[in-house]
Here is the input.
Amino acid sequence: EALTPKPNVYPDEGSGQDSSFIDIIHRANLEPEKKYREPQTTSQEIGWFHEPLLKIDRTDKRLNFPMTRSEISAYAEEYFRFQPKKYDKSLRQPGEGTKSK
Here is the structure.
């Protein structure tokens, strides 16, 4: 016969943690790459080996082309910075712009 314990008293026995259950929970929370040796589904195949095969050398000027700022792009940035913003009708205050008779 099993009786439920009293709610205001801590149980004496049976409250130990089951280590196999804890291991199952920890394994379930792992990423698929750490759980399995190979992808289990076709959607896992994309990105399974996400580590780059070669280290990228950013100092090699033959292979690295960072974004540069040309004279034209600098001029365009300054031009658009000083352009007045278009008047947005939704920003008008209530009663503003209405004709009074």
